[in-house]
Design a protein that fits this description.
The chain is mainly alpha-helical and 98 residues long. It has five helices and no strands. Helices cover 73% and strands 0% of the residues. The chain has one domain.
């Protein structure tokens, strides 16, 4: 097995990021529901504003994590020269020229 084939296998195995992103998508309905629950409520101690802001931050970070994981999964799956240079040390770059 050449180094190029090993890199291809490892990068395809790292499509685990895709499964992780799909798992995070399953949390979206819960966070969105909780956010909209506190959008229009006004409490005596303004605790609803805290929960609304908390859910907004959680929703934003969840969306960023999902997008980042999808981009990482595509990057690893394509296995271009950047992926090869990421997994290989500089001394073994002669395998890429083959």
């Amino acid at each position: 097995m050449t180094t190029r084939e090993a890199i291809r296998i490892v990068s395809r195995a790292l499509v685990y990021f895709l499964a992780w992103a799909l798992s995070d998508i399953s949390y979206l309905p819960q966070v969105i529901y909780s956010f909209f629950h506190y959008v229009n409520t006004a409490g005596a101690f303004n605790t609803s504003a805290f929960y609304r802001d908390h859910d907004l931050i959680a929703l934003a970070f969840l969306a960023v994590r999902i997008v980042t994981l999808f981009i990482a999964a595509q990057w690893f799956y394509r296995g271009g020269p950047l992926v090869h240079s990421y997994f290989l040390n500089p001394s073994s770059s002669e395998d890429l020229a083959e």
